[in-house]
Amino acid sequence: MIEVQVSETDRLDWALKAFKRKVQRAGILKDLRRKRYYVKPSEARQLKEAAAERRRRSSKKGRRRD
Q1: Distance between CA atoms of 63 and 17, rounded to whole angstroms?
Q2: How does pLDDT run across 25-52, given as a tens digit for each residue?
Q3: What whole-number distance in Å separates Cα of residue 28 and Cα of residue 22?
Q4: Is residue 4 situated within a structural domain?
Q5: Range of the domain at 21
Q6: CB-hemisphere CA count at 13 Å for 39?
Q7: How many angstroms separate the CA atoms of 24 and 18, rounded?
């Protein structure tokens, strides 16, 4: 569980910013988006291969320019 300790003198916007930072570092939102719906193992494999292909293509573009 993520907690942010706030005292009487602390500002609310500071506490909210700190909370968002902690949630992002913990990867909670990424995990929620990933688990939003079920992905069959075959679909997960296809998505992973497509992402690898995009990374491969973008790295080739970068090398070609240099």
Answers
A1: 38
A2: 999 999 999 899 999 999 999 999 999 9
A3: 9
A4: no
A5: 12-65
A6: 12
A7: 10
